[in-house]
Amino acid sequence: MSHVQQEIASQPECWRRAVESGAVGLPRAGERVAVIGCGTSLYIAQAYAALRETAGLGETDAFAASEYPAGRRYDRLLAITRSGTTTEVLDALGRAEDLPTVAITGDRTTPISAAAQSVVDLEFADEKSVVQTRFATTVLALLRGHLGLAPADLPAQAERALTEPLPEGATEVKQLTFLGAGWTVGLANEAALKLREASGSWTESYPAMEYRHGPISVTGPDSLVWFFGEPPTGLVDQVLATGARVSVSSLDPMADLIRAQRLAVERAELDGLDPDRPHNLTRSIVLDQP
Fold first, then answer.
1. Cβ–Cβ < 8 Å for 104, 111
2. Which residues have a Cβ under 8 Å from the Cβ of 219 and sit 6 or more positions away?
């Protein structure tokens, strides 16, 4: 069994620990917050930002760490970084002058502990695989719990997602599109990234209502369109009219993401790829400094 398969399977217990933890330094209700990350961490930031703002807990913006606008006024900067060494995250924290900063990481013995004023340690969810799975979802479980927006049965739904069948034909289709709305747009982006990283699959992701504005043109009988959450009225029928397959799950969208992770591994193995060692990627992106 690959590292990533073991890490996918461990998510229910990681989510239980995260939801029950009392993390210190996370944004307080009413604060205007910026959330930064890179890759998978960016997409978790997007999901959290949408959840927090929609719940009326404060304006919340998500940025790729390299695009963080240091001149804009915020009450707190939250950074998500599994390795604690990502160059762009450390640089952004360095530009956050006179601003309370907190980082969520899987390894607090890295430069992130000096870069952020407060650190939330999720070492129990850290990973060996290059491809992120349980760390990212555990961060979101932690944040949903802090917001009071984590369903009580979320870990149980994660367990169901480990055994529920994958969408029919998902391992054979040539093209996959992931769609979300609100906080699940971030999950759609993350699902598409997982399939690209682990299996080299042709994947796309969009807000569901944007899908009809062009992206549907690539959809056909060799496609699967995967919805995170309830599809907009009428859109499933329009997808089916193209001949594509459709996935709609009754699971919490975060639990449904586990099914996408499983699909990424299965497609990789069918193509003779090692999901622990994706092409051209390393576990942390550390850039050369001038």
1. no
2. 175, 177, 225, 239, 242, 244
Helices (H), the chain: 3-9, 11-20, 40-54, 87-94, 112-115, 134-147, 154-161, 184-199, 235-240, 253-270
Mean pLDDT of 242-270: 97
Question: Which phi and psi (to 5°) does residue 136 adopt?
Answer: -60, -45
Q: CA-CA distances (angstroms) from residue 114 to 94, 167, 187, 189? A: 10, 45, 30, 30
At residue 270, the 3 state secondary structure works out as helix
Chain segment 40-55, per-residue pLDDT in tens: 999 999 999 999 999 9
Dist. CA 125–CA 128, nearest whole Å: 10
Contact 45, 67 (CB under 8 A): no
Pair 14, 124: CB distance under 8 Å: yes
pLDDT for the residue numbered 290: 45
Cβ–Cβ < 8 Å for 239, 258: no
Task: Give yes or no for a contact between 199 and 166, defined as CB atoms under 8 angstroms apart.
Answer: no
Give the residue-averaged pLDDT of 10-34. 94
Q: What is the DSSP letter of 21?
A: -
Token match 């690209």: residue?
Answer: 196
Residue pLDDT, tens place only, 193-246:
999 999 999 999 999 999 999 999 999 999 999 999 999 999 999 999 999 999
How many whole angstroms separate alpha carbon 220 and alpha carbon 68? 38
- How far apart CA 191 and CA 210 sit, in angstroms, is 17
Residues 83 and 110 sit within 8 Å (Cβ to Cβ): yes
Question: How many Cβ atoms sit within 10 Å of the Cβ of residue 278?
Answer: 21
